[in-house]
Amino acid sequence: MHVAASGPKFEKPGRLPAPLDLSADDDGRSMHRFVAELYPICRSITGEGVRKTLNLILEHIPLTICEVPSGLQVFDWTVPLEWNIRDAYIKNSAGERIVDFRASNLHVLGYSVPVHTRIGLSELREHLFSDPQHPDWIPYRTSYHEPAWGFCLPHSQFLALPEDEYEVRIDSSLESGHLTYGELQLRGRSSDEVLISCHVCHPSLCNDNLSGVAVACALAKRLGSMDRRYSYRFLFIPGTIGSIAWTAIRQSHLSKIKHGFVLTCVGDRGSPTYKTSRRGDAEIDRAWMYVLKQSGSAFDILPFSPFGYDERQYCSPGLNLPVGCFMRTPHGQFQEYHTSADDLNFVCAASLNDSVAKALTVIDVIEQNCKYLNLKPFCEPKLGDYGLYSSIGGRPVGDFQMAILWLLNMSDGTNSLLDIAARCNLPWEMLKEAVRALGEAGLLKPIEEPS
Ligand code: ZN
Q: Between 288 and which of 197, 202, 274, 281 could a Cys-Cys bridge form, CB atoms 3.0 to 4.6 Å apart?
């Protein structure tokens, strides 16, 4: 028997507003403040800077801080010695600090071995790094794998250095210790997991490093208070060696990861970019493509390549996890990349906010995605009898009406809601509303999770 639903459901508006209500705690301004709080810390792939960063994250979310000992073999790599630095400078013969770690931690080549000596200009120059393309900025350089020491400085300053006897001092230590990372697991109804990973190993750089931290933290807070189908695992790890160590330690667990994305460079003013997983057509890839396409704003989709951030490790052939990378302007494609100009002015609250909003919509797609079955599949049901079709013929068919028709047509048990959404290119909230209306009318039922 047909049961007429109350009200003319075909009069739904063409576009429903995005279902995002970012709380004051998680909005872009508070994320930007968090970036500012983390900005002065001298982070590296190991050491106290990472611990300080994780302890500040811990004030927002219940992170577990994990320590992996130096020397541990992880796949083809070895967990390095722990690096810590207290001070560094170049003084001229008048005793003035002309390059000062206290002014910017970017001045020191990352992982510099300790040094304290007096040298002339030509020898000093062998240890200096500058960028002629951007003569006023301090470049960010590291030497993780070769013992070295050095200083980074603006090219204009490099060119102006006079002949002199310089005192150089780097008060650092490289000792057996730990690699530190933070991990948060939010359990859902299923033990299947979504992995969200960001790096915490860059010193005072905002977009490359801290924007991902702030967005991941905001997502964890939001997901923490949501009913969850999936379990979520957030990683705040040193780039490359951190994800290599984590996957090596957790190798037996990795089959639980059904979806995932790396967050990096999500605070600049560029439009959103998603780089697909190595699989290219994983559900997470299709969810990001659909959500960015639906946003109505500029976006870019990049195919997988074995270069970039920790998706390189998650997508290595032996793991091949369905993990992509969400960013705004890709690394290396903004001139401020790996320089002192990637500062608090380079990232903005609106972009951080938009990055959280996009990621939450993708998560909602993943959470709600399932297959449905049309219970009246022999020709179209007489929708008017269910209150699902306009009785006025001749006027244009609206989007909500099309959502109803697409759902009925495609719900033969083989297509997921995301498959249908991508094919009909209608808004996610509208499709969910149409699913609800068809379910209430007894025309559609889920045949798998979520129930
Ligand atoms: Zn970087």
A: 274
